[in-house]
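Quick question: what would this complex look like in 3D?
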Amino acid sequence: MTAPRYRPPTRRADMAPALARLSSLIPLKTEDEVYLRGLDDWRADPPGVELARNQRPTTPRLLIDGWAARVRILEDGRRQIFNFILPGEFIGLPLRGRPGACVALSLTPVQTLDAAPVWKALLDGRLSPRLSQAVQLAAAVEDVWLMDQVVRLGRHSAYERICHLVMELYQRAAAIGAASGNRMAFPLTQEVLADATGLSVVHVNRVLQQLRGEGLVEIAHGHLTLMQPDALAVIARCSARS
Amino acid sequence: MTAPRYRPPTRRADMAPALARLSSLIPLKTEDEVYLRGLDDWRADPPGVELARNQRPTTPRLLIDGWAARVRILEDGRRQIFNFILPGEFIGLPLRGRPGACVALSLTPVQTLDAAPVWKALLDGRLSPRLSQAVQLAAAVEDVWLMDQVVRLGRHSAYERICHLVMELYQRAAAIGAASGNRMAFPLTQEVLADATGLSVVHVNRVLQQLRGEGLVEIAHGHLTLMQPDALAVIARCSARS
DNA sequence: CGCCAGCTTGACGAGCTTCAAGGGTTGTGG
DNA sequence: CCACAACCCTTGAAGCTCGTCAAGCTGGCG
């Protein structure tokens, strides 16, 4: 009956994962890291909170802990997830989008920093060339992920969709140092996976059972394990070409 | 047996549609139109030609006549169309994408202009503020279309997908003055529609039959007619919100 | 200990794909 | 002018993938 009270963390999470992700786009120098660590408008939010709407003006934020997603909700309640947001990614950059196109939603407890100074510095040309390029690259990579999502939804079977998405998420987790030994924390519910893959919850469950039975992937207790990364990669590689 | 010889047109197509489309993003001044009309590296291509690959360096081009599409082709031959390209849109702008992410393919005979001067001028800050903003807006609108595509593929039925796509294309045609009286030239084959909507050709055909039977939409002889635009809009409006 | 969100399973049916074959239209060559 | 080829559209039949409904289970948290 009582609202599920949210106890915000008292301290800022480690910024290393976020910095690792940005460095994976373009190697950052110490001064860049110092600059980012200097961002001081910190905020913590519980799951299920709308972090940003894609409309101007919106102040961009940098995710430093937790998972979020870009989502659209239809009039009749259907939901479609466009993409997941992991630490080191920007939310609400005015580079893209338009009112109602999508909303950023926290999926776990999240911590973010106000990135408005970064954006302002970029526009004024005061941002370090490496950070400028990192922002540009981040946008380009997002575009590619969105195209991958289109291919998954349009031309992959349920089985392929889940394999492909799992591989993407594993590689992104690896880039922030959140994966080791083919294992990673995986906070997504099957309902969220369903909204991302365009499937029903029940069918997501069945595919996951199948993958577990085949000894390919195991998701349990908030963790994901790639049992046969190579076999998975083969299935997922029904993707690019030409 | 003989290659289906291609007779390129001898004269450049009218640029009015392309200019109308850009003006619909941001009203252009006469000098902007003069500048664009001054682009002189003209090219004509038959259908089925790869116009640009999403990788640097690629020289961007401005489509002035015909239809094209951004496509990805999978190893096993499956195809997914991301988006259609109509006159007034740029192909291969280095704003987005990455090798292999997608390819631009002509669907009809097309005519394009080399837009490298535009891009260079933009980078140097020499481009008129209106044209600069038009390019930015074009990119933003493309993002929205891509998200719409994700929603169609992920959460719409076949019936809804086709209605929604038809509405989008009609509005885009209207913006370039290529539609009148609920009617427009429509050069897409059912196979192309299938690759755009993630369906099989056979099922696209069945849905089109149904729409025709219901007196909603008629596609025949390369032309599309909206018989009941209002009813269609209601079906298609299962889209944005929040 | 009890509650609730999330996971699991079965049965059934709809939506869509696949395979197969036929028909219409357009353009090319004899 | 006709015949033919290529391409596209159309239709039927059969079956698989996936969604829906319904019910029970499990684990974590207050």
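Answer marked as accepted. Residues 189-191, 201-202, 205-206, 208-209 of chain A lie near DNA strand C (CB under 10 Å from a C1').
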